[in-house]
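Design a sequence for this backbone.
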């Protein structure tokens, strides 16, 4: 499984990767020892792709991940991080501290300009303790993120921001470039403007949402690699529709919990975990070259790996389609039990 037409220069992108947002204390604080042990467990289990961002803990995730990866040979892993935000000193209040507990004493500011991308890249190298990045992703552009400011941000990003990223790719400081976003629509906009190697798309191609199917089909046809994140829609497809279920980083609304209950009923009928079905559904699309899962504990990591190896019966997929819970045209595993490996 090679990574894109121009990405990673013939290297292999692992089919399963480590999403490092929890290392930035997403939703709960990890001690330094817990964070280090989680990374050791992932590495010892064969994980060789790690994704992070300055946003995650306002630099904390990059620092923790970098400290670990400096103990491993650089040639043995694939590393992605993001640009588009710069961190400025602030130990006080910030709205996103509600998500990242005990974050580092900074606050993030959007900057998609040429200089902003270049400076963010250099600052990321320092936090990570490395001299190059395998995959550099432009973070969180899109209308849902920026609202009425989207058009202005997008123009800056596609002009100066892309120029900076392309220069870094041409120089060899990065091997591949793309977006890291929660909106497939802005990926389609960006692809119409410039050649990209990959798109890291979070939460938009899942058991709950298949609106990105046509875009993923385009990626498969044009050899743009898709890195799928958020395959559990930030929690509810892993935990089920319980009282504290999260969907898109917030409490799950009633219509979502109702749909998840319907999904769960079919999974239970076939004695298959909902999480296994969610993970393997997303992996089945030919555009998806890697899945990254953000896990915050060794127990979560072990469970996710079990789900990746759990056989899913053919009849379960057929029942989901018949119930109108999956689009009839989405790619499904060709053989019962096909999984991410």
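Sequence:
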């Amino acid at each position: 499984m090679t990574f894109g037409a121009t990405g990673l220069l013939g290297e292999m992108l692992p089919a399963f990767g480590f999403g490092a947002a929890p290392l930035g204390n997403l939703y709960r604080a990890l001690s330094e020892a817990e964070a280090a042990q989680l990374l050791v467990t992932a590495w010892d289990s064969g994980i060789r792709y790690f994704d992070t961002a300055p946003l995650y803990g306002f630099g904390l995730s990059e620092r923790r991940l970098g400290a670990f990866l400096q103990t491993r040979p650089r040639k043995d892993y694939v590393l992605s991080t993001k640009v588009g935000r710069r961190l400025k000193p602030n130990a006080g209040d910030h709205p996103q501290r509600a998500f990242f507990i005990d974050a580092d004493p900074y606050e993030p500011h959007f900057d998609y300009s040429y200089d902003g991308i270049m400076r963010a890249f250099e600052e990321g190298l320092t936090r990570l303790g490395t001299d190059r990045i395998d995959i550099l992703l432009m973070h969180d552009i899109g209308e849902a993120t920026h609202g009425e400011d989207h058009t202005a941000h997008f123009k800056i990003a596609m002009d100066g921001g892309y120029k900076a990223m392309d220069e870094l790719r041409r120089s060899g400081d990065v091997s591949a470039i793309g977006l890291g976003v929660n909106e497939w629509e802005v990926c389609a906009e960006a692809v119409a403007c410039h050649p990209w190697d990959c798109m890291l798309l979070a939460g938009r191609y899942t058991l709950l949402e298949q609106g990105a199917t046509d875009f993923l089909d385009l990626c498969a046809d044009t050899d743009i690699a898709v890195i799928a994140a958020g395959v559990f829609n930030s929690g509810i497809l892993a935990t089920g529709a319980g009282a504290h279920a999260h969907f898109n980083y917030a409490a799950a609304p009633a219509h979502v919990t109702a749909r998840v209950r319907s999904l769960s009923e079919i999974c239970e009928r076939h004695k298959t975990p909902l999480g296994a079905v969610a993970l393997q559904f997303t992996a089945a699309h030919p555009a998806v070259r890697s899945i990254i899962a953000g896990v915050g504990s060794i127990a979560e990591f072990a469970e996710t790996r079990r789900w990746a190896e759990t056989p899913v019966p053919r009849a379960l997929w057929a029942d989901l389609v018949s119930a109108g819970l999956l689009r009839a045209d989405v790619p499904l595993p060709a053989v019962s039990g096909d999984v991410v490996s």
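The longest helix spans residues 150-171.
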